[in-house]
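[retry 2/3] Solute carrier family 43 member 3 isoform X1: previous attempt timed out, resubmitting with same input.
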Amino acid sequence: MSGQGLPLRVATLLTGLLECIGFAGVLFGWVSLVFVFKTEHYFEELCKPDAGPMGNATGQNDCKAQDERFSLIFTLASFMNNFMTFPTGYIFDRFKTTVARLIAIFFYTTATLIIAFISADSALLLFLAMPMLTVGGILFLITNLQIGNLFGKHRSTIITLYNGAFDSSSAVFLIIKLLYEKGISLRASFIFLSVCSVWHVVRTFLLMPRGHIPYPLPPYYSYGLGSWSRPREEKKVTAESKKLDLQSKEFPSPKEETPGSVQQHEARSFWSYVFSQRFAWHLVWLSVIQLWHYLFIGTLNSLLTNLAVGDRELVSSYTNAFAITQFFGVLCAPWNGLLMDRLKQKYQKEARKTGTSDSAAALCSAVPSLALTSLLCLGFALCASIRVLPLQYVTFILQVISRSFLYGGNASFLTLAFPSEHFGKLFGLVMALSAIVSLLQFPIFILIKGPLQNDPLYVSTVLRAGEGSRPSTSKDIQIGATPWGLSRGHPQTWQRPDYCTAC
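[retry 2/3] Solute carrier family 43 member 3 isoform X1: success.
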C-alpha cells in the first residue's frame, strides 16, 4: 500500500466508526429521551384532566398537547438533519474536511451544553438545541463517509457501515435513559457528551485529512498530522488525484465519451445531474420511505402509551426494546454494501468481456439493493399499522434493518451514479429536498391523533403505495431487467437514455 500505511488507515476507519456510533445520529433515539423529558415534567403544563364521555374527569390526564409539542421538536430536528445536509455538503466540498469538522464540533458542543443546563421551565430551548445537535451529527457523518475511499474495492461496504453506525448511535439516548433510571442525572450525561468534543478535535487534526480523500487514491497519498508539514506535496497530490478522478473508469470524463464536444461538457455540470430523471426518481423513493420512518420514530412514545393503556413500565420496556434494536443497525447496513460491492465486481467483470461501460455495470449493482430496501420498508410499514403491542417487536426489527439499508444504499447509490467531485453537494441536496417532504410528519401526526382517533391505517396505506414507486430512474423497471437501459442478459445493448444527461 503506497503512501501512509495500513495501521493509520485502520485507525482512521475504527475511530470514525466510533464517532458515528457515539455521536452522529443520536436524534433517532428520541423516543428514549422523550421518556426522560416526561419524567422531568417537560411541557407537563400542557396536560389537562381527561374528561370522560359524560364530561366527568376520569383521573387521568389528556397529554395530547404535550405529545404534539415533542412531535414538533422532533419534526424540526429531523427536518434540519436532512435539509442542512445540502449547505453542510457545500461547506465540506468548498472548505474541506478540517473546517467542516470544526463547525460540527461547535454545533454539537453548544447543543449538548444547552440540553445539560435547561430544565422544565426552559424546555423551549429544545427547539434550538435538537436542530443544532443534528446539524453537528450530520457533518460528522459526511466527513467520515470519504474514509471509504481509502479502501478501494470495499468502498460501498464501508460507506454503508458508517450509515449503519449513524443509525446505531440512537442507542446513546437509551444509555442516557438507563443511567437516568439508575440515578445519574440528565445534566451529567450531556456534560460528558460535551467533554468528548476534545476527542473530536484531536481526531480532526491527527487522523483526518485537511482536504478531501480522493478516489481513486493517488500514489503516496498522505493525510493526518504528517500532511500539515507538507503543504506543497499535498497540493501536488491533490492535483494528481483530480486528474486521476477524471480518468476513473466509474466516472469517465466527457472527453472520453464525446471528444471535443463543448456542449457535452457543459451538459455534465452539477445542475445537469440535479435535473436528471435518475436523481428525481431516487429523490421520490427516498422521501416517501424516510417520511414513514420519521413519522414512526416521532410518534412511537405516543403509540406505545396508547397500546399499553398508560402503563409506564410497559412503555419503558418497549422503549428499551426499540432502542436496543436500533443499535444493531451497524451490523445490518454492511450486508447491503457487501451485496453492492459483490454485484459491482461481477457486472464489471462481465462488462469487460463484452466491452460495455464499467459505469453502467456498476449502476446495475444498485438495483437489487434498492428493491430489497423497498421490500423491507413495505413489511415494516405493514407491521407498524397493526395495533397489536407484541407485534411491535417485529416492527422494531424490520424498521432498523430497512432504515440501515435505506441510508447506506442511498449514499452508495450516489457514489455509483454520479461523479465523486459532486458527492457532497448531491448527497446534501437529496437529503435537503427529502427533508421538505418530512415536514408532513407533523400534520400527519395531528391527523392521526385527531380525526383518525389514533388509527394510522389510512396513512400507512397511502405511504405504502408511495413506497412502491420505482427505486430507480428508468421508465420501464420490470422483473428481470435493470434500469438505465441495460439488460442483464444482454449487457451489450447499453444505450444512453435521451432523457438523462447524467447516464
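[retry 2/3] Solute carrier family 43 member 3 isoform X1: Confidence is low (pLDDT under 50) at residues 244-267, 470-503.
[retry 2/3] clearing retry counter.
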